[in-house]
Amino acid sequence: MPPPDKSPDDWTPYRSHIEFKTTEFLYTCNQMSAGNINILLDLWATTLLKHNDKPPFADCCDLYKTIDSTPVGDIKWQSFKVQYTGEKLAHNIPPWMDQPYDVWYRDPHEVVHNMLVNPEYATEMDYRPYCEYSSDSDEHQWQDFMSSDWAWNQVDIISEDPEMLGSMFVPVILGSDKTTECSKQCDDLDAALLCWCCDHTEVLVEEIDYSALWLEYGIVSDLVPFTNDFPRGNIHELIAPDILHQPIKGTFKDHLVTWVVASFAGLQRFPEGRGFKQWTGDNLKVLMKVYLPAIQGHVPTDMVCAFLEFCYLVQRNVITESMLVQIQEALDRFHQYREIFKSTGVIPTFSLPRQHSCSHYILLIQLFGAPNGLCLLITETKHIKAVKEPWMRSSCYKALSQMLLTNQHLDKLAVARVDFKSCGMLNSTCLSATLEKLMADTDRHDDSNENIMVLPSNVGVTILGDNEEGEIDDSPTLVQAHVQLAKTYHIS
Fold first, then answer.
1. pLDDT for 99
2. Which of 122, 125, 120, 174 is nearest to 415 (CA)?
3. CB crowding 394-419: b at 16 or more within 10 Å, else e
4. Is the model's pLDDT at 257 over the cut of 50?
5. pLDDT above 90 for 119
6. What confidence tens digit (pLDDT) does each residue in 143-168 have?
7. 444 contacts: CB under 8 Å, gap ≥ 6
8. Measuring CA to CA, which residue among 342, 256, 343 is closest to residue 304?
9. Contacts (Cβ under 8 Å, ≥6 apart) of 82
């Protein structure tokens, strides 16, 4: 949808370019608290009193009110309450059984609609699935999600429905690091069994008692997945690979590093690192790079090398058919070498969900594309912006409503930026835009521009200078631009 016609000076609900940029800097970039915003605006107002002028906002409330009145990007938050209604214990009832919980959400259809009409995504979308082949060897290769076999197959199915003619396939990718799905029993995850499906799960729920169902299959019979009745949302075939929590944090950090230290004398492990409160994905990737040199001479490197090769291969942005063979070979070698940990008594079993998940990667890459494009590092980065930072900006007391309001303000500012940018209103800085406007006013009021100097177009700033020879001065102009302008600008 093309952006509506808009005046280049229409900064609604802001009065000017500087007002919008001030809001964006204070609220999004600097994340300044309400108290500090008031202090800054008070100091700003003090400096402008002698000029009979005032800052863009009176106080923080004025700033927040302006953000709230943004006419675009307004998807309302909705809520409902949930509470446990099942059987309760006779004594020592846990608080969660009696406590109601608020669930806040936005209409998913409106959220997806806003994403689709965002002009910044116009050239970043694949509007239909495709099969990609390398130009060198004519090998089938997988990259983005829409290059996957699953997307291709779904569109084939949808296209058989005549009512879907002219529609667009819009898959939604969700991130969660709390989901485990496998058709194997907990004590033998590597057993060769058929893939799980909804019908299989329903049979298990009907035939097996509650406790055995949980202990052997990890299923809670009372819980039904919200995707259970989705025509294109079979949860048993839609769990994509998770590089962060399966190979990197799970198999490498929690398993392999611990096992190597426990198996061989002379090695010492520092679980907390050097002041780390939590190991991030980037921290662990750096550790993987230096791990082999660090243990050289202490342990047979084949044990770790095979798994690291697997990790580096699955992290590639483009994976070809020949790479799938290399991935499987590396994984087979790791399974062969890891037996030493069982024979030496370090670990009693390899029936570990996060290690077993690696055995599904060949199929999942073909189904959903390169795992690097689906890694939870992406959604966890958004989690920082949507949850952790709003929490830190709140009073930490009944913080949920404050966090939702912060997210709403951030969304409105982000959508306003896209709107202004699509209209060409953010192509220059506030300084250069103001100088250009003042220069235009000067041209109208004074035909004699003896002391005017124009910088090259790629600099994006036009200033007034006093270079007598009329040559371009490449030296820093920072504050001098303001001073020279004040000396030469006249109003007739």
1. 92
2. 120
3. beeeeeeebbebbbbbbbbbebbbbb
4. yes
5. no
6. 999 999 999 999 999 899 999 888 88
7. none
8. 256
9. 100, 101, 103
How far is it between the farthest Cα atoms of the chain? 94
Buried b (16+ CB within 10 A) or exposed e, 108-130: eeeeeebeeebeeeeeeeeeebe
Q: Where are the alpha helices (DSSP H) in 100-240?
A: 108-116, 149-159, 198-207, 210-217
Q: What's the average model confidence in pLDDT over 15-25? A: 95
Is residue 153 within 8 Å of residue 162, measured between CB atoms?
Answer: no
CA distance 369 to 151: 10
The two tokens of residue 15 are 């009065």
What is the number of other CB atoms lying within 10 angstroms of the CB of residue 490? 8
d(CA 406, CA 400): 10
- Return the structure tokens found at 243: 């590089």
**pLDDT above 50 (res 490):** no
Tell me how long the chain is.
492
Interatomic CA distance for residues 338 and 306, integer angstroms: 10
Residues forming beta bridges with residue 453, ordered by sequence position: 463
State the burial class of residue 317 (Cβ atoms within 10 Å of its Cβ: 0-12, 13-18, 19+): exposed
> Which run of H or of E encompasses 61?
helix 60-68
Q: Which of 374, 427, 404 is nearest to 172 (CA)?
A: 374
Q: Distance between CA atoms of 239 and 175, rounded to whole angstroms? A: 10
Compute the distance between CA of residue 258 and CA of residue 264 in angstroms, rounded to an integer.
11
d(CA 481, CA 152): 57
User: Does 472 have pLDDT greater than 50?
Assistant: no
Quote the pLDDT of residue 275.
Answer: 60
The whole-angstrom separation of Cα 112 and Cα 121 is 12
Amino acid at 261: V
Pairwise CA distance, residues 331 & 306, whole Å: 7
What is the SS3 assignment for 230? coil
173 close to 164: Cβ distance less than 8 angstroms: no
